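To assess whether the prediction recovers the assembly geometry, we first specified each molecular entity separately, as shown.
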Amino acid sequence: MNGFERRRELKKQHILQAAMELFSELGIQKVSIADIARKAQVSQVTIYNYFESKHNLIHDVFIYYVDQASNQFEGIVHSDQPFPEKVKMIIFNKKQVSSNIHPEFYQYLMKEYTEEGNYIEKIYIEKALPYFIQLFDEGKKKGYVDQNLSNEAIIFYIQMLKDYVQREDVYEKILPLTEDITNIFFYGVMGKK
Amino acid sequence: MNGFERRRELKKQHILQAAMELFSELGIQKVSIADIARKAQVSQVTIYNYFESKHNLIHDVFIYYVDQASNQFEGIVHSDQPFPEKVKMIIFNKKQVSSNIHPEFYQYLMKEYTEEGNYIEKIYIEKALPYFIQLFDEGKKKGYVDQNLSNEAIIFYIQMLKDYVQREDVYEKILPLTEDITNIFFYGVMGKK
Amino acid sequence: MNGFERRRELKKQHILQAAMELFSELGIQKVSIADIARKAQVSQVTIYNYFESKHNLIHDVFIYYVDQASNQFEGIVHSDQPFPEKVKMIIFNKKQVSSNIHPEFYQYLMKEYTEEGNYIEKIYIEKALPYFIQLFDEGKKKGYVDQNLSNEAIIFYIQMLKDYVQREDVYEKILPLTEDITNIFFYGVMGKK
Amino acid sequence: MNGFERRRELKKQHILQAAMELFSELGIQKVSIADIARKAQVSQVTIYNYFESKHNLIHDVFIYYVDQASNQFEGIVHSDQPFPEKVKMIIFNKKQVSSNIHPEFYQYLMKEYTEEGNYIEKIYIEKALPYFIQLFDEGKKKGYVDQNLSNEAIIFYIQMLKDYVQREDVYEKILPLTEDITNIFFYGVMGKK
DNA sequence: AATGAATGAGGGTTCATTCAT
DNA sequence: GATGAATGAACCCTCATTCAT
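The predicted structure of the complete assembly is given in tokenized form:
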């Protein structure tokens, strides 16, 4: 990658970052291209030169998102903390780019794309899923996780928790419940016996 | 309530119902007043006569929603099925008007209103919450639920599950996991011992 | 048609008239909805309320056009002037709404519509063509027109002439040639013998 | 002309050719500079370096066009076919670059330029007209054309026919009428006596 | 000389809301 | 009270053109 391409790539990421932040804060539909252009300090047309349409931009933001997420995720999975600590971090570490897809992205993309939908899902599975599985295989081996539970069900739970915890409207209310929520996750509403 | 008022009230509910259905199907932002007017077979202005603004309409749809939900909810709580069955019904019974707020409603209202937010929350707490608490008190008494867990945490979990299960994009993938998900809810990822 | 509908119809025609004039003067592509709205003294959205899209508007202008044209045309055909005079009028009477389609309309519609294209052509044939045929049957009977010539060929000639004569860029240059052009039409470049 | 200039001239013609083809296919307004740049495989700015504006480019395409046309035209006029055959070729030979201006060019230029208009017309007259006149003088001498007809009127007819025949939307419908149309051109609607 | 990047201006279209009847 | 008609503001997108390298 030469200097030209590198600069182009940087600017692209700059725009993607701006878009991602605005999308996260306000939702996709409320953010206009003009908003993104303003935040990224480029003209609207520049965005079109890079991404061709709002649709494509959203698509690329999604990939950017998954990419960043899986990197951070990998860090946690490969760290040498005890298993429960890893799980807690994944669920509650708000600053981290969420490793699972923000639901609005996913929903939007699935509704609008249909065909590309499969491709997007593929990307997601390839990038993010393996770390989930690796993590819970570890959990099962170490006795923290019931061996009979399907990975799908566990991942569903983690994703769900992560999504919710990261939503601005619930985050604050949940903080004091951290311990209880972790407990429910590990021991269920029935509790340890 | 005389005949006039009754008719007015009916028409209002008619509009609310139409709006609710469209919001549920397409999300709030994608539904225009014109769409609602078409579906409810009234003129746009009639909607304004009743609700004054789209904002207010959404507000009222929300209340309508919570109202319907809490009624159905009450039915389940007061029925004479065993506790775990009640929980399962609440989480997985898709046809039922969701007893917790559809997240987009909640998010939208919280972001837009701020001030009224508190009022809306109050409504929600008054209407829907008591049944939750009643239900889990029953669960705790009958030994299905750990007495040390806070109601807030349990309710958070239930809401979260219900939300996710009801989302079109995940519903189908989750169906085969029903058993596992219920198990995790009751016994955690660690499983029964 | 009650008062409401009549007024609506009038306004529609008002917009159509404005659009037609602008299209004739500047071509279709150069005329923006804003231009038409300004000329018709309505808001842009009003135009959308009536016609739904620029595309549809053009379509309707076309029909409006053909309609007006065939009326005027009928007048000439049924008048009691001698045959050559009628032909001359049709070709050279510029003020008359051209009875054949302005080529840009036709081309635009054919390119964009494809499917509706057939419908449009049908309209045209139903409305305008019969008068052409009637006229030239008269011409053949009275000995002004060679009986062996196909109506298609004659109509093609007339249309072509009319189109050209009405084009702003050639009109003035042609005026002094009126006599010659008429002669060629009747007697060919070879001339009367 | 040295090597530099020659190369420059070649590139210019390359661009002109690309532009001409696109204009012919899609009309002037629908073709963007970006389209032309893509087709000619140069950057947009290169086009501006050579032609300064889209306006100028159109102008130069026009001249390029007339130039090519008059060359082909000369070939026909100076060939040794019988006169009627030459005329037929000019009118119906679609592949040949039209020797008369494509109407959209002419109209566009006339409307936009006004001042330069005269210059363009001059170019056209200088290049293309003499061959027309030469051809019809031949026709008059050989008895195919009425001596009393003005050249202007004849040329008007030829141009008009050529234009129409070359339009995609009418070409196919006209093919079966070739004979009739040629007859009308030579003998008029009245027919040979 | 040639290019990739960038942009202001404008076009078609939609929407929540108001006006007039 | 209810409606059809009308609108200003905003949105996505395109284009001819210029800037910077």
